Amino acid sequence: MKLSSDGTILAWFGPWPINATLAYTWLVMAVLVLTSFLVTRRLQDEPNMSRWQNLLEILVDGLREQIRQTSCQDPGPYLPFVGTLFLFIAVSNLLAIVPGYAPPTASLSTTVALALAVFAAVPIYGIAQRGVRSYLADYLKPSFFLLPLNILSEVSRTLALAVRLYGNMMSGTIIGGILLGIVPLFFPVVLQFLGLITGLVQAYIFAVLAMVFIASAQAARDERKPTQTFGD
Amino acid sequence: MRIDWLTVGAQWINFLLLMWLLRRYLYQPILRAMDKRQQTIAARSAAAAEKSARAEQLARDYLDKLAELDARRAELLLAARAAADAERTKLMEQARADAKAESDQWRRDLAREKTDFQRQINRQLGGLITATARKAVQELCSKPLEQALCDRFLERLQQLPAEEKRLFTEPHPGELLLASSFELDAAQRNRFESALRDILANDVSLRFETLRNSSFGVVLSSADHTLEWQLERYFAELQAELDATLTQTERKPPADAEPGLNLEFPQALPE
């Protein structure tokens, strides 16, 4: 049993191999983009909208509300990043119900890439809002000697973010495969449904943690700013 | 658990690409549509609020006008009622006056007709009674009625007390007037002159006249006293008795008659 789909090479693009992880990632991207394109090309400004438009509006509005509650800030700048994280991970995990499909999030390469994206987004958003000097000065607080610990903290939480998602998704796939060998009827199906819920929860956790990290880099370290309570 | 850094790089790029694509085809269009719908709803809500305010203002205006019209109608109704009452009172008074005038006129006409009728009856009855009496007296006494009247008149004059006889000559002695409903012949005049001289005084002078308004009678009068016999006196008594009988009959309506509506005349006079 393969633990990752990275090793499954489907084709070669020059010197670069096209593995199953990339192929399924593109599949998820195609599903997301095509669905969005087909629905949003005929948007209605009136209340009598289509069901798909209604679904997407609920989704986007829910994401904005979640970001607002988590960060206590305007969700506008964070929606593309955090929303894409949630949608990509959620759709990747939900498609695991399709036979023969291997979720890209079960690949450590994918989760590391997503964690690195969060790792990069935190200073980008922080610097964009507070400036380079103010942002970097936080690493020297409360003392210069804590600089290594602060950097280690950033790296470790990024690693934890990647491994958490990878472990959950990979374990679900592996447990499903093992149970399929032991109890081939009924029980794997139940476990697959449970895996769907786990997938959605993991997508939610990943997106919320990313938002918390970004927000903490902007507000939590700035003691001059009053910290709003969750749910305001 | 192995990390393929080439795949990591590719996934990184894929994620950035996906983020851009979703921003272009999902977030921005959806947010634009939501904002536009919110603006539309806000505009409609504002327009609805404006219309509602205008409608409320209109309703208030209409209510004010309605109240004004009600007040005006009440005033007009009051004035019309007062005018109608005044007109009704005026008409009623006029109707009463007209009815009273007609009633008075009717009563006057009735009284005049009654008087005329009585006169006519008296005249006819007098003529009839006189003719009958003349005939009866002629057959019983073998003398004319006028002669009988003269005899009875002189007999009555003869039987007067002395003090009453003196009333013809005292305290103003003078000419006496003897009026009769019929023409006295010379013998009758001489008889009256000689009889009066015997009964009253020797120096009495007598003047004769004819009564115009009497059907049958003789009147002897001086300046202070009068002695007469006229058939009209019986007619007056008869009329008085007739009136008394009619009045008594009118006051006793029949038992089965409707109160206030008695148009029947008595069939026969009580004896």
From TrEMBL, chain A:
Keywords (A to Z) from UniProt: ATP synthesis, Cell membrane, CF(0), Hydrogen ion transport, Ion transport, Membrane, Transmembrane, Transmembrane helix, Transport
Gene3D superfamilies documented for this protein: ATP synthase, F0 complex, subunit A
Classification via HAMAP family: ATP_synth_a_bact (MF_01393)
Protein family per UniProt: Belongs to the ATPase A chain family.
Encoding gene (name): atpB
Protein name per its UniProtKB record: ATP synthase subunit a
Organism, scientific name: Methylomonas subterranea
Record's subcellular location: Cell membrane; Membrane
Function: Key component of the proton channel; it plays a direct role in the translocation of protons across the membrane.
Residues passing through the membrane, by range: 20-39, 78-102, 108-128, 165-187, 193-215
Pfam families tied to this protein: ATP-synt_A
Domain of life: Bacteria
Chief site of localization: membrane
Source taxonomy: Bacteria, Pseudomonadati, Pseudomonadota, Gammaproteobacteria, Methylococcales
Membrane topology: Multi-pass membrane protein
From TrEMBL, chain B:
Keyword Translocase set for record: no
Location in or out of the cell: Cell membrane; Endomembrane system
Record carries keyword Cell membrane: yes
Origin: domain of life: Bacteria
Regions that span the bilayer: 6-27
Membrane topology: Single-pass membrane protein
Region Disordered: start-end pairs: 249-271
Pfam family membership, one: ATP-synt_B
InterPro entries: ATP_synth_b/b'su_bac/chlpt, ATP_synthase_B_chain
Keywords (A to Z) from UniProt: ATP synthesis, Cell membrane, CF(0), Hydrogen ion transport, Ion transport, Membrane, Transmembrane, Transmembrane helix, Transport
Subunit comment: F-type ATPases have 2 components, F(1) - the catalytic core - and F(0) - the membrane proton channel. F(1) has five subunits: alpha(3), beta(3), gamma(1), delta(1), epsilon(1). F(0) has three main subunits: a(1), b(2) and c(10-14). The alpha and beta chains form an alternating ring which encloses part of the gamma chain. F(1) is attached to F(0) by a central stalk formed by the gamma and epsilon chains, while a peripheral stalk is formed by the delta and b chains.
Function: Component of the F(0) channel, it forms part of the peripheral stalk, linking F(1) to F(0). The b'-subunit is a diverged and duplicated form of b found in plants and photosynthetic bacteria. F(1)F(0) ATP synthase produces ATP from ADP in the presence of a proton or sodium gradient. F-type ATPases consist of two structural domains, F(1) containing the extramembraneous catalytic core and F(0) containing the membrane proton channel, linked together by a central stalk and a peripheral stalk. During catalysis, ATP synthesis in the catalytic domain of F(1) is coupled via a rotary mechanism of the central stalk subunits to proton translocation.
UniProt family annotation: Belongs to the ATPase B chain family.
Protein name, UniProt field: ATP synthase subunit b
Native species: Methylomonas subterranea
Gene that this polypeptide is encoded by: atpF
